[in-house]
């Protein structure tokens, strides 16, 4: 079902209503080091109870309430995801005096009253407190400070956890968002992780941002999010490809069964190998096989175990005419993926063989990860070229190592 941003609007927003909304707009107190501030406000005026146009919440009227001003407040960023929309509802009597105040916090609506039951008004202005990084509203700072540990984790360890936020309101408009887009946004927000201050000294006058009707803000958001995704993608430094060996990296060589012509006709995967490949695919990593052996063997084994659909290219020594660590194997993989030697520093090679996989990768400037799961090959580097950049014991460790590599890339880029 298509979302209609006008579904609850009773009448077009008049200039007088917009002026009133601006005049009564709340002041927001942010933590002293809050990195993300609002830029737009979408206004809806309700003359009767109804469903919010911009949130799955009911706008209710109580005694003495003649109308309600809804403020849909827009941020480009929440510390956990790309874009933030929080709400304030001012409930007015027939003379436009504020009777009560509601506001949103984590998808729910709460009455904004101080512990003593009074409305949160300071110097004649409605004044609300915003959670660090997350922006949910409170009438007083006490409730935020009481969740200090939770708030700190959200701003540090959980930074970027949700990638691009996509809810029912925008799911069709943002259907183009890819797994790589989500990953780029996560890495971007991880570089903005911070230790939140719980001194709410940053006073932000909401009336000073851009005010418009909710339908107009909806269209702005639909255009703005792809724009921000493009900006982040252009500015981010991500792994451009993951090259995978096969034997004792994906496939357990000890289980290989050969036919009379020397082709592998049966073999089992290393525990966790398929799950690792599927996890990397979900994260939007482009993967290619770079393996020594015969083409038909890999078609049989990797096809049987469901690995091949996740591979963007298969570089096999029989087809290339050389074995690793010959640079032609790795160059063929880069070429098949539309990459060049200049991209080598953002390409990862994962393999079990120090001489073939690690030395070959290091010579071309690829990021090398040695998987030490098997003891069938040498476990000691013969020289400096065989020293891997990273070591994992099992396939299950790979996703977090790749995430770490991208965090280092993002950090180094930020420092440049």
Describe the fold and architecture.
- By secondary structure, this protein is of the alpha/beta class.
- The protein folds into two domains: 15-235, no CATH class; 241-415, Rossmann fold, CATH 3.40.50.1000.
- The chain has eleven helices and 22 strands.
- The strands form five sheets. Strands 2, 5, 6, 7, 8, 12 and 14 form a seven-stranded mixed sheet that branches. It has a six-stranded parallel sheet with strand order 19-18-15-20-21-22, sandwiched between helices. Strands 1, 9, 10, 11 and 13 form a five-stranded mixed sheet that branches.
- It starts with 14 loop residues before the first helix and ends with a helix.
Query: Strand pairing plus helix content: what structural class?
Result: alpha/beta
How many DSSP helices?
11
Low-confidence stretches: none
Strand content: 25-35%
Q: What spatial form do the alpha-carbon principal axes imply? A: elongated
Distance between the termini: 46 Å
Kindly state the mean pLDDT as a whole number?
94
Q: What count of structural domains?
A: 2
Pick out its properties.
single chain, 416 residues, alpha/beta, Rossmann fold, 7-stranded mixed β-sheet, 6-stranded parallel β-sheet, 11 helices, 29% helix, elongated
Task: Describe the secondary structure blueprint for this structure.
Layout: H1 15-24, E1 27-30, E2 40-46, E3 50-51, E4 58-59, E5 67-78, E6 81-92, E7 98-105, E8 108-111, E9 121-122, E10 125-130, E11 137-138, H2 142-146, H3 148-155, E12 163-164, H4 179-190, E13 202-205, E14 210-213, H5 214-235, E15 241-244, E16 257-258, E17 264-266, H6 273-282, E18 287-291, H7 295-304, E19 311-316, H8 317-320, H9 327-336, E20 347-351, H10 354-363, E21 367-371, E22 390-392, H11 398-415
Parallel strand pairs: 1-10, 2-14, 6-12, 15-18, 15-20, 18-19, 20-21, 21-22
Antiparallel strand pairs: 1-13, 2-5, 3-4, 5-6, 6-7, 7-8, 9-10, 10-11, 16-17
């Amino acid at each position: 079902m298509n979302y209609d941003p006008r579904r609850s609007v009773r009448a077009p927003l008049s200039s007088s209503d917009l002026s009133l909304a601006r005049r009564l707009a709340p002041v927001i107190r942010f933590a002293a080091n809050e990195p993300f501030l609002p830029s737009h406000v979408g206004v809806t005026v309700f003359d009767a109870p109804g469903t919010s146009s911009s949130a799955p919440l009911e706008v209710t009227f109580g005694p003495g309430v003649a109308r309600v001003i809804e403020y849909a407040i827009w941020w480009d960023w929440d510390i956990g995801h790309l874009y933030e929309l929080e709400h304030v509802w001012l409930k007015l009597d027939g003379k436009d005096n504020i009777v009560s105040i509601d506001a949103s916090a984590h998808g729910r609506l709460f009455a904004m009253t101080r512990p003593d039951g009074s409305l949160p008004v300071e110097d004649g202005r409605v004044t609300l407190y915003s959670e660090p990084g997350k922006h949910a509203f409170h009438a007083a700072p006490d409730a935020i400070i009481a969740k200090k540990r939770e708030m700190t984790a959200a701003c540090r360890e959980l930074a970027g956890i949700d990638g691009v936020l996509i809810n029912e309101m925008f799911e069709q408009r943002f259907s183009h968002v890819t797994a790589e887009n989500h990953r780029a946004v996560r890495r971007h927000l991880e570089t903005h992780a911070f230790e939140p201050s719980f001194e709410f000294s940053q006073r932000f006058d909401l009336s000073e941002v851009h005010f418009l009707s909710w339908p107009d803000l909806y269209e702005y958001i639909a255009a703005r999010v792809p724009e921000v995704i493009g900006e982040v993608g252009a500015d981010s430094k991500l792994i451009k490809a993951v090259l995978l060996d096969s034997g004792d990296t994906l496939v357990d060589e000890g289980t290989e069964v050969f036919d009379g012509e020397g082709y592998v006709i049966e073999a089992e995967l290393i525990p966790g190998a398929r799950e690792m490949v599927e996890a990397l695919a979900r994260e939007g990593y482009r993967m290619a096989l770079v393996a020594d052996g015969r083409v038909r063997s890999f078609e049989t084994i990797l096809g049987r175990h469901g690995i091949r659909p996740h591979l963007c290219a298969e570089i096999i020594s029989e087809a290339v005419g050389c074995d690793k660590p010959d640079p032609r194997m790795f160059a063929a993989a880069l070429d098949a993926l539309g990459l060049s030697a200049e991209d080598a520093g953002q390409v990862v090679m994962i393999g079990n063989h120090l001489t073939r996989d690690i030395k070959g990768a290091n010579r071309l400037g690829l990021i090398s990860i040695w998987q030490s799961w098997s003891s069938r090959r040498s476990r000691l580097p013969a020289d400096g070229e065989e020293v891997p950049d990273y070591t994992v014991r099992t396939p299950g460790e790979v996703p977090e190592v790749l995430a770490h590599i991208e965090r280092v890339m993002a950090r180094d880029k930020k420092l440049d």
